[in-house]
Amino acid sequence: MCDFIVILRRFIPPYKWRLSKNIIYNLLHAVFGTLSMVMLVPVMGILFGTQPEVTERVDLALNVDTLKEWAYYYITVAKNQYGAPGTLLLVGVVAILATALKTGFSYLASYETVYIRNGVVRDIRKKIYVKILSLPIPFFSEERKGDIISRMTGDVQEVENSIMSSLEMFFQSPVLIIIYLAAMLLMSWQLTLFVFVMLPVMGFLIGKVGKNLKRHSREGQDKMGEILSLIEETLSGLRIVKAFNAEVKMEARFGRENEMYRRIQNRLMRRRYLSGPMSEFLGTIVIVMVLWFGGTLILSSTGTLTAPEFIAYIALFYSIINPVKNLTNAWYNIQKGLAAMDRIDGILAAESSIKEVENPVHIGSFQREIQYRDVDFSYTADKKVLKKVNVTIPIGKTVALVGQSGSGKSTFVDLLPRFYDVKGGQITIDGTDVRECSLTALRELMGNVNQDPILFNDTIYNNIAFGVENTTREAVEQAARIANAHEFILQTENGYETVIGDRGCKLSGGQRQRLSIARAVLKNPPVMILDEATSALDTESEKLVQEALDNLMQNRTSVVIAHRLSTIKKADLICVFHEGEIVERGTHEELLQQNGIYTKLYTMQNF
After folding, report:
1. DSSP string over 254-271
2. Torsion of CA 270, 276, 282, 286, to 10 degrees
3. 10 Å Cβ neighbour count for 318?
């Protein structure tokens, strides 16, 4: 329950005014509900002759005996004036009015709960999305995409279905229980004390059933995350699955995961559905015990409880059963929802490894050079990916990086916009360590064109204009012309308003790459990072893309990763990476004269 209170303290404050109204409405609902039942005592006592008529009105005072005398007096007056049938009708009208007020306030309380419930779920989902945007690249290399999607969808939905759906019961049931118990205590403290002894025993037995509910819920949600990850992998790699005739293998793998999820859910649901029958069974036992004890009080010589009072007491007790049962169900639901909230907090509580200093430097332009000084980096403690790398990149120059896969080229360029932070040494821009810079300002200086262009399921126009505020149609079209993309865009179904599908699936590889270049052109950054931008293209597409890249790199500082060495002959500096170190550097002609690794790579590509 402490975890639930913590969740309320985190997410309820923006809705405290609605929560206050909800509590007030629930209080009024309980008061009028109690009134409609307590009215039975004087009515039955006077009309059926078990209570002497009261013909003189006493002075009003705020105590139970005086209020009883007033009720007996007015029922006596009504009986004498309208007769017993007329009095019953009058009391019935009052009961209807009290019930109307009771149900009306109940609706108003639920009305406020709707806004709280949906608002909190919206806030949680937004917090997760904002957190995902703020987390660095290393976080996602440790997490499965499917599991993250599961937390944003399934777990948030579970919080809504479990915790948020229990809000109404959590805020309504205790109020009803307190008011009803107070009325019962005033009617018979002996019988109410007996109820106080019985209810905790019932609650303890019910709690034993739900002891492991949270743990089983967590297991189920973890397994659903694994299933969604498998589905995401299957959809992404469907071409390979079919090419290798691996449908049966994938089906078997999915079947195993799905069966494990079914078994976990079976255990969870068995416990969950046991709560209702157990609550009803134990509740019946308590009612029988209350009837026995109450009957004893009526039949005893002391006469501490009258028959009409006992009937009203039983009506109140029956009314308290549903709130207690709802509170029990809310407890079960909350336990299930807390497991989902734990998984959500795994994202919300994640700390970013890429942190901005307290007063960052806002670099507005690039004036002189970029320097890598004795840069070390490793993803794991046992193996360095970069070792004492030193490179100077003057403004306006093109530096190319070559070498075998895994030699450290992509890591080299990922360190510049601080997708990762160096483990040793430093990277500076115009003498300022990038770790001292504002992340937004730092990344504003750079544009990226990757081997696998990242496009969105949106229009061509919006993909080119992505991340650039207040652009114009003319600027977008000019960027497309520079990227050799304008002509093919006009040939699409709706031109610049054509929606290109998931990750640009409606376009060819070369077309996607040219849109990616157009996006970089429109951003117009002083530094360009090109990561093997032509390696996956056919000859014709490569020519068009290479022309677009040449246009893009004019008058810019560029860092180029290339497998095809023919594309970097004009680079001002070529760095050859081998096992995390720069083993050769120079121009194309200078490296060929060294007759080293570069010469070997160049010869193999031109064989």
Report:
1. HHHHHHHHHHHHHHHHHH
2. 170
3. 14
Max intra-chain CA distance, the chain: 124
Count CB-CB contacts under 10 A for residue 369: 16
pLDDT at 217: 67
Closest CA to 409 of 558, 533, 553, 580: 580
Burial class (CB in 10 A: 0-12, 13-18, 19+), 539: exposed
> Residue 588 is encoded by which pair of tokens?
């194309």
pLDDT (tens digit per residue) in 522-532: 888 888 888 87
pLDDT in the model for residue 47: 60
- Of residues 127 and 229, the one with the higher pLDDT is 127
Distances (CA, A) of 201 to 2, 196, 218, 286, 548: 21, 9, 28, 10, 77
Quote helix, strand, coil % in the chain, to nearest 5. 65, 10, 25
Beta-strand pair 398-403/573-578? parallel
Q: Could you tell me the two tokens for 344? A: 């959500």
Per residue in 244-281, pLDDT (tens digit) is 677 788 888 888 888 888 888 887 777 767 766 776 67
Query: What six digits make up the tokens of 520?
Result: 């970089």
- Bridge pairing between strands 446-449 and 527-531: parallel
Query: In the structure encoding, which two tokens stand for residue 406, read together?
Result: 């895994």
CB under 8 Å to 413, separation ≥6 — which residues?
401, 529, 531, 559, 561
Beta-carbon-side half-sphere exposure of residue 329 (alpha carbons within 13 Å)? 19
C-alpha dist (Å) from residue 517 to 368, 468, 470, 510, 552? 25, 14, 19, 11, 7
